[in-house]
Backbone:
């Protein structure tokens, strides 16, 4: 039996609530909920079924005839290779409306394919970051074997902060904001008040 569009919409809302609640628990020191978040993000933004239907978020967008796009700073896409670089991390923070700095429009799905981590010559996009944690470290599977660079990355720390976990937390907060801002006009007021999402982006000031 095929689920109704209303059911899929509620599944999306519930998935976002789970991510929101897990972020709160992580802020209270329960870091293991990163595993839960990775599984939810995979289910919401990545997973398709055997019929090759779109992932849950994009399926709901189609139902409401929405094609959400974001605006990014095209300058931040430029790559400046640094010899001997071991780690580079950076999310190209998007906006839902064009600004002085954010002029290039792309779909959210395309944005998920942009690289956010470079480790020893290997690149990870938002999608591959979610898949790595969910498929290798418990979000959906606990693999008995992993590649050494995956293991090293999972345990890499900078100033006692786990790089991979911190990247997923920041990505989760951003995706939660983006998803909620897109679907908020479609939801009822009780959900609006429940979702206390804060998101601020301050572009770097360039002195003339």
Residues:
């Amino acid at each position: 039996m095929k689920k109704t569009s209303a059911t899929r919409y509620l599944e999306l809302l519930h998935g976002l609530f789970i991510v929101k609640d897990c972020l709160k628990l992580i802020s209270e020191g329960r870091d293991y909920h990163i595993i839960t978040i990775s599984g939810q993000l995979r289910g919401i933004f990545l997973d398709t079924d055997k019929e090759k239907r779109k992932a849950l978020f994009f399926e709901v967008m189609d139902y409401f005839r929405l094609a959400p796009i974001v605006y990014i700073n095209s300058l931040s896409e430029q790559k400046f290779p640094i010899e001997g670089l071991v780690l580079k991390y950076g999310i190209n923070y998007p906006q839902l409306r064009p600004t002085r700095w954010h002029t290039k429009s792309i779909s959210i799905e395309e944005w998920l394919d942009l690289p956010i981590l470079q480790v020893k010559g290997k690149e990870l996009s938002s999608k591959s970051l979610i898949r790595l944690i969910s498929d290798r470290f418990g979000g959906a599977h606990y693999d008995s074997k992993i590649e050494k660079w995956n293991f090293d990355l999972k345990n890499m720390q900078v100033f006692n902060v786990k790089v991979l976990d911190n990247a997923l937390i920041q990505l989760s907060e951003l995706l939660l904001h983006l998803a909620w801002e897109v679907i908020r006009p479609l939801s009822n007021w009780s959900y609006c008040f429940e979702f206390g999402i804060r998101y601020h982006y301050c572009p770097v000031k360039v002195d003339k």
